[in-house]
Amino acid sequence: MNITFAEIIPSLLPSPENLQLNSWELDKTATQLAVNVTSVQNPVRCPVCLAVSHRIHSQYRRKLSDLSWANFRVTLQLNVRKFFCINPQCQRRIFAERITDVAATWARKTQRLTQNLTAIGLSLGGNAGVRLSQYFGFQVSRNTLLNLVRRIPLAPIQTPRILGVDDFAFRKRHTYGSILVDLELEKSQPIAILKDREAETLAAWLKEHPGVEIVSRDRSRTYEKGVLQGAPNAIQVADRFHILQNLAEATSASIWQPTKKP
Ligand SMILES: [Zn+2]
Questions:
Q1: Are residues 9 and 69 in the same domain?
Q2: Ligand 1: distance of its center to the CA of 27 in Å?
Q3: DSSP 3-state percent helix, strand, coil across the chain (nearest 5)
Q4: Which of 105, 106, 164, 193 is the most exposed, fewest CB within 10 Å of its CB?
Q5: C-alpha Rg value of the chain to the nearest Å
C-alpha cells in the first residue's frame, strides 16, 4: 500500500476533523513546513447568543506556529471564517468562528504547542526553559514562558484547619512576602503567597478564609498580631524550625556574649 505525504498530513494536524488540508510547502534548506488548511467545523455558533449560523461573511488567514514534525518547524496557515449572527435579538452582527481545540482566540501558537511550552516553563523556569525550547526548535522568550506558567489556573483553595505562615523572599534581602502552607495531615502544601509581611495582610486573608483552627508561625509579633486580628479563636504555636533557631541563637549568645557584669 502506497501512502503519500499529503495523506499523512491530516492525521498530524491538531483537530483533523475540523480542518481541511489545502496545500503544503516544504523548505528543506530552512527545515520549515508550511501547511495551509481551512476550517470546516460545523455547526458554528455565535459566541454571544450561541445561535447556529451558516451565513458566511468573509474569510481571513491566521498564522500559527505548531509543534515541530521531526526537525521541521511547522507553520499552520489557517483560513478562518467570519459569520453573520442570524439572531435578530443578538447584539453581535458578525463574529469570527473559534476553533478552541486548535488555538485560543488571537493566539499565534497552536494549543498543543502552548501546552508543551507551558510544561517546559513549569519544569525549568525561564532561562533553562528557553534553552531546551530552542533545542526542540521553538523560538520563545523567557518572558513568554513565564507568562504561560502564570496563566495556569490554580486549583481552588480549601481552607486548612492547620495553617503554617512564614517569610517568603521574592528577592532575598530586598523584598519579602509571606507564604501560607496547609499543614493538615502533614501535607506541607503551599496554598497562598501574600504580597508582604504585614499583620493586616495576613488578617485579611484569614478573614476571607474562615475555619483555620491552629496557626504555626515564627515568634515575630507581626504574625501574632495578624492571627489575633484575622482568626482570634485560632491557637497559635511556634513552629519547630523557629524554636530550634531561637534556641541556637540563645545558646550561642550565652556562650559567646556573656552578660556584662554590672
Ligand atoms: Zn449572536
A1: yes
A2: 42
A3: 30, 30, 35
A4: 106
A5: 28
CA of 52 to the centre of ligand 1 (A): 8
The Å distance, Cα 255 to ligand 1 centre, comes to: 79
Cell numbers placing 219: 515568634
User: What are the DSSP calls for 50-74, one per residue?
Assistant: --EE--EEEEEEEEEEEEEETTEEE
- Containing 112, the helix (H) or strand (E) segment is helix 111-124
**Domain encompassing residue 167:** 162-252
Summarize the confidence of residues 120-148 as an average pLDDT: 92
Q: What pLDDT, on the 0 to 100 scale, is given for residue 250?
A: 65
Three-class SS of residue 186?
helix
Provide the pLDDT for residue 4.
83
Q: How confident is the model at residue 252 (pLDDT cuts 50, 70, 90)?
A: low
Do 131 and 139 form a contact (C-beta atoms < 8 A)?
no
Same structural domain, 26 and 48 = yes
User: Which run of H or of E encompasses 157?
Assistant: none
pLDDT at residue 253, as a whole number: 54
